[in-house]
Here is the input.
Amino acid sequence: GQQLNQSPQSMFIQEGEDVSMNCTSSSIFNTWLWYKQDPGEGPVLLIALYKAGELTSNGRLTAQFGITRKDSFLNISASIPSDVGIYFCAGCRRNRDDKIIFGKGTRLHILP
Amino acid sequence: DGGITQSPKYLFRKEGQNVTLSCEQNLNHDAMYWYRQDPGQGLRLIYYSQIVNDFQKGDIAEGYSVSREKKESFPLTVTSAQKNPTAFYLCASSEGLAGAFSYEQYFGPGTRLTVT
Here is the structure.
């Protein structure tokens, strides 16, 4: 079946640093979604991407839909303590019976 | 405020008992989903429903059952047949196939089920 490889699995950074994470797929997707999950809570949708090459920002977050349609990237600039959590990518082909496929997440830790 | 509610937040059950997790949404979404999350794992799809009175098995449906009698509600029953039921359960909804952004799923706060 379809799989998403999300990397890195975890990151330890200093407050103020920029963060980059990515997701790659074995097949083409027509939609990429990025979510953030705080401990003990449900994931919250950060950014949705619908077009190859699309670059979309949400505050300090920027996500890109890869040209090959098999990958997506999320960048966080000038990290702050509340950025801690798990970031999930999700992809979908948008066919009638298609479901969203989730990556396993990137756990972001911020060192004091 | 529109959103998805799940109750209770924490649930404890003895092995061998069935337990039903509640999920309600007031977003007027057609599609609803149940996921299971284990530590260090991603989200695994249990069941989903694209319309009232219809639902399909996801990747790990064994030991679970659902119903969709109302658009707003999609309860999940964890049966005694589920071999490893302790997990964090997440409910989500999306506009459905008719919506322009039908693939954006919105999640509830989750229910942590512990079975001993």
